[in-house]
Amino acid sequence: MAVNVVILGAGQGKRMHSALPKVLHPLAGKPLLAHVIATARALKPARICVVYGHGGEQVPDALRAPDLVFVKQEPQLGSGHALKQALPHVDQRKDTLVLYGDVPLIAAQTLTALTAGTGERLQILTAEIDDPRGYGRIVRNAKRAITAIVEEKDATDKQCRIREINTGIMLLPGKRLAGWLDQLTNRNVQREYYLTDVVTLALKDRVRVESCAPSDSWEILGVNSKQQLAQLERIYQSRTATRLLEAGVTLADPLRIDVRGELRCGRDVRIDVNCVFEGAVEIGNGAQIGANCVLRNTRVGAATRIEPFSLIDDAAVGKNCRIGPYARIRPGTRLAESVHIGNFVEVKAATIGAGSKANHLAYVGDASVGKRVNIGAGTITCNYDGANKHRTVIEDDVHIGSDVQLVAPVTVGKGATIGAGATITKDTPPGELTVSENRQKVIRGWKRPVKKVRSEE
Ligand code: UD1
Ligand code: CA
What we know:
By secondary structure, the protein is α/β, with parallel strands linked by helices. The strands form 6 sheets. It has an 11-stranded parallel sheet with strand order 12-14-16-19-22-25-27-29-32-35-37, with helices on one face.
């Protein structure tokens, strides 16, 4: 049965030492809260409600979506008080699952198990951990039944030694929710309305209190500091690397890859060390990515080689291409098959046809380049007149010599050759050699300047 999901995230996160609300800090390129929302969506819930508080409207502004209800909690009087703010927005005929915006790795599989049971019950996700410090402890009686959750600050020494902790994640029965939240008090050391006190209320109402454990221990880890954020990032990345290896991708070192988005690879893809993949990246069969490359929202065709230190952003690279080392491919670039883009070449908003090459030190921006074109070293498309951008068209089979400036808008006709060093301001005829006046002359008798010797006093 579909549940309501309420994600708590109003806390400040003091130990992050940041102006950004804690739940907006990025893990693998997206806010902590976005991970929890994605997992919540996988459960196909009746509602998703996000409780926010600290940092003004930054949280709803960053994550607004038609299926999310954002509720402000102000002031923040505890986890029970936080859940109460969401009450008007949940369907009270259905059970409510409480998640935390700062516990981002919780897996849908665990939550499916947690919500799977039937009948009226309070279901708590608990875990046995070696170092339970800081967590609420699960107190059980001789029959192993849960009798309470005590916060560490309220716990006796004996209770502090309990290693079973409250992860915070729980499923509350729909019909009881409003009544229980009304009965919470702040009579405790922290003067907060503790959500955990629902255990006592459930027992009083003779509602079953049950627990289950996460599929993997790291799922319940929370982020309270930059240190923990970094630890969770490593856990996330190492799991992503494992999945890539399992799918047959060759990683030079699974500890040195960062995927901040969705990376899809074909067969026999090889990825060298220190590559970063952002957004949606797709790599075709047999393609190779050299060390230290950054690929963002990019498609790479089969058998293409991206050499080290290349940056490719929002582009499509065809099959059998050779890119880099040290290439910069900027948004809106479309490379057909067998294109070569060499070192220190920048390409922006350009389409380049099959078999064309720009091997050294060039800028190709706002351009349409045909097939089998050779762009010489140091060639620049002068696309910007200081106010507007203009396009350069280079037709098939053109050969452009070194150090040419193509002042856009301009078209180089099919099969044309442009002499080295030319400045092209007008369209050039197809099939012909065009040069621009830059005649060599000798200045006879010219002397190189000589370094002045400072005269001693
Ligand atoms: C809570 C649990 C504790 C559990 C631990 C797991 C309570 C009383 N205690 O303790 O048993 O072991 O989480 O990490 O629930 N929040 C709000 N509004 C508030 C207070 C909190 O939205 O007024 C949110 C926070 O943003 C956070 C979560 O609730 O995401 C937990 O709050 P926190 O103050 O960190 O509770 P803990 O003391 O860690
Ligand atoms: Ca906490």
